[in-house]
Every structure is written in C-alpha cells, then in structure tokens.
Amino acid sequence: MLKLSKNIKLFASDFDGVFTDGSLYLDEDLKQVKKVNFSDIMGVSRLIKAGYKFAIISGETSNILNYFKNKFNIDEIHGGIRQKGIVLSEIMQKYNLNSDEVIYMGDDVNDIAAFECVKYPIAPKNANPIVKVYPNIQITENSGGAGAFREVVEALLNS
Q1: Are 60 and 81 within 8 A, CB to CB?
Q2: CA-CA distance, 36 to 44, in Å (whole number)?
Q3: pLDDT score, position 140
Q4: How far apart are CA 45 and CA 71, in angstroms?
Q5: CA–CA separation, 54 vs 43, rounded Å?
Q6: What pLDDT is attached to residue 35?
Q7: 63-72 vs 38-49: helix crossing angle, rounded to 10
Q8: Which CA distances in Å does 20 have to 7, 12, 35, 38, 45?
Q9: Is pTM beyond 0.90 here?
Q10: pLDDT at res. 82
Q11: Angle at CA 5, nearest 5°, toward 55 and 113?
C-alpha cells in the first residue's frame, strides 16, 4: 500500500516505462509505436478533475506527449529532457511547491535526479533494479504500462 500525504499538489511523472511497458514497437518502415494503457489515461483525467497539477517530464519526444497536452490541457509537458531534476525543480518553483507536496514517478536511472527533488518517489513494479533500491522509494503493485500510474492516482485520491 502506497503511503501518500494529503498535502500533495503535483504529480509529476516520466512517460516511457510508466505509461508504457517500456517497449518500443517498430514496423517495417521503422515507425515507432507505443502501447499506452487506457486505465492510466483515465487516471490522468481523474487526477486533473480532482484539482491536482500534473506534469510529464520525458527523456523522449513524441506526438503522444502532444496528445496528452491537448486532451487534458496540460501546461507542464516536457519532452527531450536529459536533466529531469532541473526541470522538476523549475516546475516546483513556478508553483511554489515544497518537496513534500510533490510525487515523482519514474522507472529508470535517468529519473533519479527527479526523485531527489521530492519526498514521494515512486516506481512501477517493473522498474530498473537500481531505481527500486533508491532510498524511500515506493514501488507499485502494477507494472508500467499495466496500471501503475492509475494505482498511484487512486492511492492519492483515497489518501
């Protein structure tokens, strides 16, 4: 069971490995395709309707990020980011948030700098083993791309 505070105001997340299973599908023309779990998409809707701020900070650029930005009118969609901790810190400053008011969810070593910014680092069950031993990390029961994001949303809404 995830332990989250009622003081949380921002849920920031990586994309690949959280909303997806981390796989990259290539067709014969080498076009990339990613599978996104609809339960996680509904989680974004529930999160925003409940009044929480939401941010995606991804190392990749993708039209899928634009889909989220447009579908949910999200201002804080950041793609092609190598320094996730810096971007998350800037978002926190912009909204005047402290570390205990923010969740960051990520699955790989490039998320560790963002974990360092928050009191509530969370990783999906199938995260990289290095991430899963990060101090104070909470691990979801579900894997990335299989409802892990939604699991955290529901835990937050019920905290």
Answers
A1: no
A2: 12
A3: 98
A4: 9
A5: 11
A6: 87
A7: 40
A8: 28, 16, 6, 10, 17
A9: yes
A10: 92
A11: 45
pLDDT value of residue 52: 97
Mean pLDDT by 10 residues, the chain (159 residues): 94 95 86 88 95 95 87 91 96 97 97 97 97 96 97 95
Determine the distance from the C-alpha atom of residue 5 to the mean position of all C-alpha atoms in its chain, rounded to a whole number.
17
Closest by Cα among 104, 96, 108 to 57? 104
Positive or negative: CA dihedral 49, 55, 59, 62: positive
User: What φ, ψ does residue 82 adopt, rounded to 5°?
Assistant: -100, -30
